[in-house]
Amino acid sequence: MKPASLRADPLADDTIARILGPATEAPIDILAIVNRQLAQWQSNGALADWKAGPDVAAPIAAALEDYVSAALKLPGWADDAKIARAETLFMDMSMTSCTLLFCASLPECYVVPELAGVLHAAGQLEQHTDYRIRSTAAMVFPVMMHGGLLGAGGGVAQAIKVRLIHATIRHLMLRGDPAAARDYAVVTPQPPQGEGLHHTLLANGWDVGRNGLPCNQDELAYTLLTFGYVFLRGLRRLGIGLPEADEEAYLHTWNVLGHLIGIERALMPETMAEAEAMFGAIQARARGASFLPDPRPALGAALMQTMENEIPLALCKPFPVLMTRFLCGPDAAQALALTARVSWPSSALFAVTMGAVRVIDSVVRLALPQFSIARLVTRIAGHRFAAKVLMDQTRPLKLPAALLNQVGSVLETWQADPSAPGWMNALERRLTGRRKQNPSPGPIKC
């Protein structure tokens, strides 16, 4: 069997090959037709008997309908109870989840050079970092909200959209079906023939022998780990780790998502120990890889700048870098070039804060097991980033209106931490400048 870096996703790749054909330049009007059809995939229930529009050519309609029929099914090993538990955990973590997304999951996503290279090629993301963050949130929230995978939500619909987008990226970057690409193929760069992502990907070029296939199985599995394993590891490092059964339920749910986006079952760890081993192995292979020019420092710097822009106090502006170092470790910081010296007042304040949080939590939990200053601190940061980046009313998440309102309602309910004492919620409201939460919040209007 070929290595995971040379394996992609036969179902999605075959679908795109049927739609775009063998031509080295996919007609942009065909991609526009496909995008209009994908926009109809708004909820899980709507996919059960979905049919392409009457204006869609029969071969394209057949390819899309066959794909939906095959892709929307959950795997036979999916455990409804574990998925429901993971949804509850995600809701309970609330704004802390946003902090871990910004300072752990996304930074680790950029560490693998080939994966960072695809992200760079697919839209110059170091110049449009907020787009990457918001696109990720548009995937995470529909999957992890109640009913995202098992009910009438939109998690399955979003997942199979992303799966087909990955296949489109592969087809355009390789200028044809990945199944026909030789292991040592080199696609040479060429001047763009127009503007837009379609032309950017066609012109980019790609070295399969050096970098593997774009969005290959290794990279997909690694990305899945950044949102499952890295999230849980972050909770542990903050001193608010979950019980083993809850961690495995969370990993299981992300594995179900992995199935929906075309990841092979053998690349889905079921325990934290297995996830840690796989994550370390993929990163170890990445350390021996090269991608010139290295896109990782620019991606990391842009992500840090996006967070820094939303912090009003100059003394605290280095905190995103310091928190990312704390959650991801020195190897990731080195890969992303986040090792520059930080002013000693900021470093000292961060160190004292994190040390005090750990000590206070350890002592007070002897009497109050649910007490957590760490949750308070990360909730405050997460609220700031969510309000300023994710839910900016001038740039709503790219989700169907009904689903967008559900996300807005979830973020409204996250204004208070149900596991925290009332005085902690009151303190958080004062620190973030929020008013007291309405007991029956309505959806955010976008």
UniProtKB/TrEMBL annotation:
Pinpoint the ER-bound oxygenase mpaB/mpaB'/Rubber oxygenase catalytic domain residues: 124-358
Which Gene Ontology terms cover its molecular function? oxidoreductase activity
Highest taxon of the lineage: Bacteria
Q: Which InterPro entries match?
A: Lcp-like, MPAB/Lcp_cat_dom
Q: Name one Pfam family in it.
A: MPAB_Lcp_cat
Q: Which residues form a coiled coil?
A: none
Name used for this protein in its record: DUF2236 domain-containing protein
